[in-house]
Amino acid sequence: MSCGLGAIVLVFMLIKHNVDTIEIQDDVLHREQADLLEREIAQVSLRESDLRRLMAELEKLSAQTASAIQRTSKQLSATQSTLTKKNQEIDKLVSELESIKKKVAKSKPLQKTDAVTDSNEGEESYLIGLKVEGRRIAILVDSSASMTDELLLDVIRRKNTSDQQKKAGPKWRRTKRIVRWFLARLPAGSQVDVIAFSDKAKTLGPPGWKSARDSRILGTVLKELDLLVPQGATNLEAGLKSVSGATDVYLITDGLPTVGISNFRSLNPFASCSALWGKSNRISGPCRRKLFEHTITNSSLRASTKVNVVLLPIEGDPEASVAYWSWTSAAGGLTITPAEDWP
Asked: Cα–Cα distance between 275 and 282 in angstroms, integer?
């Protein structure tokens, strides 16, 4: 009897032990599965957060792109509008040009009104500030022997040649071109008097003031200029004494004067300048300067007369530029030493 009870108790204990073991194993399994599930949920949550952040960045980028597209669209629209206006302006200018071309084609050729023509290219009315202007314009032309060449040796050689060779001197031919340049640019309402001087002064053309528009008379002036032979001394005093009532004087020369018309023997400043009152054939630089100053002081020019000088080159007269510059500066004009290729 007792043996049977013990066996029953043993069986019962074995059954209970197995049940507890199974329950424990089930709990462990459930916890592992729960942990795995939690980890998966956490990973999913992380991926979802990343996705949301990415979506936010994409939305921001999309907004920026849309804004840039909008700005570009506005700029493109403005550019197209400007281009349209420019095309309209071009069309208008083309139309006006075509209209002008038609008018020019129908119009008659303009007649040249200049009394004297100038073959030089260009129609400049001034030379480095030296403008041809004034109501009464006197053009003084130095026609002395030195106006043939620039070097003294060449001047001396040409003195002993024929009149034709003297007139063919390069500086004299240039001087005549300068006179033509001035005459071609005279103001329409002005009057002109052209005076050549060497030992004595000579008015070219009819005496008195001549109209700047009278091509016949100015043609006569140029013809008489062509007949002149550059020779003799430089008597600026005689030239200035021949000017009467000029508002503007244009002097073409190459240096200081060498003779005058005053009684220099009676003038104390010229006591040592025998070339002016004696028989000497040469005059010194200081005497030429004194003669120039005396000439300007005793000239018949009015105080309001503007004086301009075109000073051509000559060897051996270094004081000329300073003396003429001082004179023209005080007289409201200019002294110009032009380039060798002018005019």
From this structure: 6
Phi, psi of 311 (to 5 degrees): -100, 110
Tell me the C-alpha distance between 322 and 148, whole Å.
22
Q: How far is CA 130 from CA 248, 319, 340, in A?
A: 12, 22, 16
Which string of b and e fits 167-187 if b means at least 16 CB within 10 Å? Answer: bebebbebbbebbbbbbbbbb
Q: Which of these ranges, 56-60, 152-156, 289-293, has the smallest mean pLDDT?
A: 56-60
Count CB-CB contacts under 10 A for residue 87.
Answer: 10
Q: Which of 225, 220, 223, 218 is nearest to 186 (CA)?
A: 218
The DSSP element (H or E) to which 191 belongs, if any, is strand 191-197
Q: Quick one: which of 295, 322, 323, 328 has its CA closest to 309?
A: 328
Name the DSSP letter for residue 249.
E
* CA quadruple 291, 293, 294, 300: dihedral sign: positive
Q: For residues 33 and 28, give the distance between their C-alpha atoms in angstroms, rounded to a whole number.
A: 9
Residue 177: is its pLDDT beyond 50?
yes
Which residue has tokens 């005793």? 298
Q: Which two tokens stand for residue 307?
A: 């004086």
Please write the tens of the pLDDT for every residue from 244-300. Answer: 999 999 999 999 999 999 988 888 889 888 888 877 778 999 999 999 999 999 998
Range 155-172 average pLDDT: 96
Residue with tokens 């004696």: 278
CB 186 within 8 A of CB 192: yes
Kindly report the pTM of this predicted structure: 0.66
Q: Please state, in angstroms and rounded to a whole number, the distance separating the CA atoms of residues 287 and 271.
A: 10
What's the fold here for domain 126-336? Rossmann fold (3.40.50)
